[in-house]
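testing teh design pipeline on a random one, pls ignore if ur not involved
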């Protein structure tokens, strides 16, 4: 069956400005890929990705990769060659996930059944607090004080003071801190003893990915999670001893196929698993949601962060995330 590839950009306005240590944004700019059959039987699979400047990607650079790679994919079986055609990243993610969706429609089976895995039930997803002033973050936290798990974006400023204020607003919540590479080893050593008293369960990427060797000397009472340092299963051994957890994102692994391989390797290595996302719609969340049964933490609140999600997207009841019967991706 011959295949045709079409890609286009979309922009989702965010419900509110989203801030992390390296910048802020008001819109999510995404790239969508559609894979369609050529001939009498018309089938279309699709996927969504967020090219990320942190990994030297732009929408333009990913489009160039798609233009080149799509010329070497003439049939569904060519999905197995994606790792030879493309490095891990958004382009490979788009092709891999769109081909999985296409396969589900072609075989009239869900992707989860094709993988031979258990369908996730409603899962607890962290809700995100953007980095801001102490007062603003505490005020935002009060609105989420009934939720059991919050992810807090922080930079290197007022770390403990902000967490004390947030903890006071949400005394019964657990916290994941995401530093987005903004700390150094001195800061980490200084704040760790105090953060242990504030329900912090995980600290995500405290040090820059290319300067995290110092973590080998840290005996952290809080699990440290690799995000920017973690991409594929092949490089996982480099993280052992530095981190106790990894954050799996499709735009880093290059799609669902590698994400599953990475999750299995992490399980074998006795590492905790967090499922993460870029800010995007439910279409970007749907493939990685299938790995929820393997995860210790789920952080897939992208659809909550956009002002208007796609039709047939995920259902969020407070912090509980579940898929509707006719989810927009992967249901065959």
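output:
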């Amino acid at each position: 069956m011959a295949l045709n590839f079409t890609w286009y950009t979309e922009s989702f306005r965010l419900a509110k400005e989203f801030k992390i240590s390296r910048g802020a944004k008001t819109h999510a700019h995404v790239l969508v890929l559609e894979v369609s059959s050529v001939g009498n039987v018309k089938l279309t699979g699709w996927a969504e990705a967020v090219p990320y400047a942190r990994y030297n990607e732009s929408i333009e650079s990913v489009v160039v990769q798609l233009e080149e790679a799509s010329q070497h994919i003439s049939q569904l079986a060519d999905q197995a060659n994606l790792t030879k055609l493309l490095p891990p990243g958004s382009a490979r993610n788009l092709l891999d996930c769109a081909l999985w969706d296409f396969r589900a429609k072609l075989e009239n089976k869900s992707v989860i059944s094709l993988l031979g895995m258990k369908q996730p039930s409603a899962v607890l997803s962290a809700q995100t607090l953007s980095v801001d002033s102490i007062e603003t973050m505490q005020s935002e936290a009060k609105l989420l004080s009934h939720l059991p798990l919050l992810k807090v974006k922080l930079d290197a400023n007022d770390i403990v003071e902000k967490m004390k204020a947030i903890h006071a607003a949400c005394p019964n919540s657990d916290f994941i801190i995401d530093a987005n590479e903004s700390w150094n080893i001195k800061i980490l050593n200084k704040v760790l003893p105090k953060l242990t008293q504030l329900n912090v369960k995980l600290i995500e990427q405290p040090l820059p990915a290319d300067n995290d060797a110092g973590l080998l000397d840290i005996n952290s009472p809080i699990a440290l999670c690799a995000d920017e340092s973690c991409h594929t299963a092949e490089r996982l051994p480099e993280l052992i001893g530095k981190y106790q957890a990894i954050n799996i994102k499709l735009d880093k692994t290059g799609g669902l196929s590698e994400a599953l391989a990475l999750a299995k390797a992490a399980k074998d290595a006795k590492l905790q698993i967090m499922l993460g996302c870029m800010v995007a719609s439910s279409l970007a969340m749907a493939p990685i949601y299938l790995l929820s049964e393997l995860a210790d933490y789920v952080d897939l609140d992208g659809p909550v962060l956009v002002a208007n999600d796609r039709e047939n997207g995920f259902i969020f009841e407070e912090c509980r995330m579940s898929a509707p019967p006719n989810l927009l991706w992967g249901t065959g």
